[in-house]
Amino acid sequence: MMRLPFLSLSICALLVFSSCGNAGKLLKAADQALKSTSSTGLTNEDAANGLKEAIIKGIENGTGVLAQKDGFLKSPTYKIPFPAEAQKIEQALRKIGMGGQVDKVTESLNRAAELAVNEAKPVFINSIKAMSFTDALKIVTGGNNAATNYLKETTTLELTRKFSPVIQNALDKVNATKYWGDVMTIYNKLPTSEKINPDLNAYVTGKALTALFDQIAIEENKIREDPARRATEILKKVFGYADSQKNK
Question: 2 Cβ partners below 8 Å, 6+ apart?
Answer without folding.
Answer: 37, 43, 44, 45
